[in-house]
Design goal:
single chain, 90 residues, mainly alpha
Length: 90
Amino acid sequence: MLVKILGLTDLIIGILIVFLSQFNPPANVLISFSVIAFSKSSLGMLRDFGSWIDFSAGILLGIAIIMNIPIILSIIVGLLVLQKGVFSFL
């Protein structure tokens, strides 16, 4: 059950990152999902690839508050997080 909830947060974070260049979400939304991604990466203690994906998503969301993120970078990281979320439901 916990894996499904964490996978759902991956899906939400992935969709948010992919469409980050299309719309500007409020800063509090970016901060909250950045904190969620960082806390998910601390669960794996950066020992596996999935933790590094969450860590990079948290950094990307944190930086998106200050500056515009290149589209290709947001699509790559967003698709990695989306893929991780989809595989958690299998």
